[in-house]
Design a protein that fits this description.
The protein has about 220 residues and is α/β, with parallel strands linked by helices. It has 5 helices and 8 strands; from the N terminus they run H-E-H-E-H-E-E-E-E-H-E-H-E. It has one domain. Strand 4 and strand 5 form a beta hairpin.
């Protein structure tokens, strides 16, 4: 059964175009490879940059991991308007840092979201806004499990046309209950879209998927 469970994925340009063309919302774009549950940082800006390039508005992004940007927001305080650089600091191929003049809407210390019957922390968090886009910056890496990620900061997820989240599939059970459409997007690195293209240092080349049938060896 291996290799048969992966969801169909599309590139960022197509994902954003489809989301904008939807006749209703919210449309959930799952940035499935920038997923802290898979070992990555959760600070990629590839899909956010595409949303900006296509002039998307009424968008909420949850989350971009950037403890330094969060500290700056807490220092400035709610209601402040500051020039802020955030995201894309952890690794190559995660996009470029975003430089924007942002308004700090809400600050929450030790924020949490639901994950089934439990709670998942995502650290001190800041809701910033610019150009019709809301972004949640967080200080503790966590994938996007549940819409309460947004409501914890005071954002009503049902009021947004597009929700950009960072999760491969743990999000599905909770977000499917509110989503008009779910789009799986393959964007950036270092978590591999295709493991065969990743320059692993220690993984042997005699295992799947590097080899279609390792048992032949």
């Amino acid at each position: 059964m291996r290799g048969t469970f992966m969801m169909d994925q599309i590139d960022p340009q197509t994902a954003v175009s489809q989301a904008l063309a939807a006749d209703s919302g919210p449309v959930v774009i799952a940035d499935i490879w920038d997923n802290p549950g898979g070992g990555t940082a959760g600070d990629a800006t590839v899909v956010l940059a595409e949303l900006m390039a296509q002039k998307a508005t009424n968008v909420a992004v949850g989350t971009i991991w950037d403890p330094i940007a969060v500290q700056l927001c807490f220092a400035a305080g709610e209601g402040a308007e500051i020039s802020l650089r955030f995201g894309a600091k952890s690794a190559p191929d995660t996009g470029a840092p975003i430089d924007k003049r942002v308004r700090i809407i809400k600050l929450v210390a030790d924020a949490q979201m639901r994950f089934g019957a439990s709670w998942a922390p995502f650290g001190d968090a800041a809701w910033i806004n610019f150009d019709g886009i809301d972004v949640i910056l967080n200080s503790t890496r966590a994938q996007s499990f549940d819409p309460s990620l947004f409501s914890a900061l005071g954002i009503d997820p049902l009021s947004r046309k597009i929700l950009l989240i960072k999760s491969t599939n743990h999000f599905y059970d909770s977000f499917a209950k509110i989503a008009h459409q779910i789009i799986y997007c393959a964007a950036g690195r270092p978590y591999p879209n295709d493991a065969r293209t990743t320059p692993y240092i220690k993984a042997p080349r005699t295992i799947w998927p590097m080899l279609d049938n390792p048992f032949e060896q």
